[in-house]
Amino acid sequence: MKIAITWSNGFVWSHAVKYFSQKNEIIAFQRQKYQIQNNITYKKWDLRDAYNDSFDSDLFIHAAADTGYEKSKQEMMEQNVISNKNVLDIVNNSHCKHFIYISSSSVYQWLSWCIDESVEIDENNLENSYSYSKYLAEKYIKENLKKDIKLTILRPRAIYGIWDRVLEPNILKHQLFWRLILLWNGQNITSLTSIDHFIHTIDLVIKKQTSNFEIFNVSDLVTKNMEENYREIVRKYRLKWIIKIPIWILKVFKCLNRNKISYLIDNFEKDKILNLWKIQSI
């Protein structure tokens, strides 16, 4: 099988390229120079530009995204939504049979407890630019992908693992005198997704999804509260301990930066447990 993967030099996609290249021919899109390595062809492409080279694949895994939740909605729309036109232009004009879009559980902003994929998402609740752009990207792809191409949308929660360039670095940058800063009391429960589990989930939907369109939540079966997760990071990096910041402080400053602060409050106050019954049933 010939598989195309965008953002191949990122954390998740270095794992995806390594895993799927064992038995498949890979086209790995990136912003660096063209090169061939075994059965992996690395092709240079900035997704904001039209792709003018010849292209074909059986499966397309679209993972490229800007995760900068602090950026403006205009910036995130350009990076995460408008660029999809260029992606779908080449996919719709190829022999692609299956398109997999990696979205995010951030589209569930302000929802709490056990969250199901079938829940109706209210765009007015998506105050954060990243959450909003990922949902609109889902919507754009559903409306513009050719109907005879199978579509899978995956919504992972907090992917972690070796070579993580997003989750742990974002946590570690918030520390004071070697003490990790934890917003709120740390008792809210959250799902997490190991990188190995996530890659195997992609493999599962490739092999077993039968319907023409599905949305799947993805996370580990085990959930922990925020403080447990922070304790593990403190031990791992030999930090001193955790400083807890009351959530009311964030709520006071929300009026100054609704975009950023709404994202933080949602993640550190709300329970975020993903319902996985759909992915477990295939």
Write structural notes for this entry.
By secondary structure, this protein is an alpha/beta fold. The protein has ten helices and 17 strands. Strands 3-4-2-1-5-6-8-14 form an eight-stranded mixed beta sheet, sandwiched between helices. The mean pLDDT is 94.
Q: Would you list the SSEs in sequence order as H and E?
A: EHEEEEHHEEHEEHEEEEHEEHEHHEH
N-to-C CA distance: 21 Å
Number of helices: 10
pLDDT < 50 runs, ≥5 residues: none
Describe the largest sheet: 8 strands, mixed
Number of DSSP strand runs = 17
Mean pLDDT: 94
Radius of gyration: 19 Å
* Principal-axis shape: globular
Helix content: 25-40%
The strand line-up of the biggest sheet is 3-4-2-1-5-6-8-14
Structural class, by secondary structure, is alpha/beta
Beta-strand residue fraction: 15-25%
Summarize this entry quickly.
With 282 residues, this protein is an alpha/beta fold. It contains ten helices and 17 strands. The protein is globular.
List keywords for this structure.
282 residues, alpha/beta, 8-stranded mixed beta sheet, single chain, 17 strands
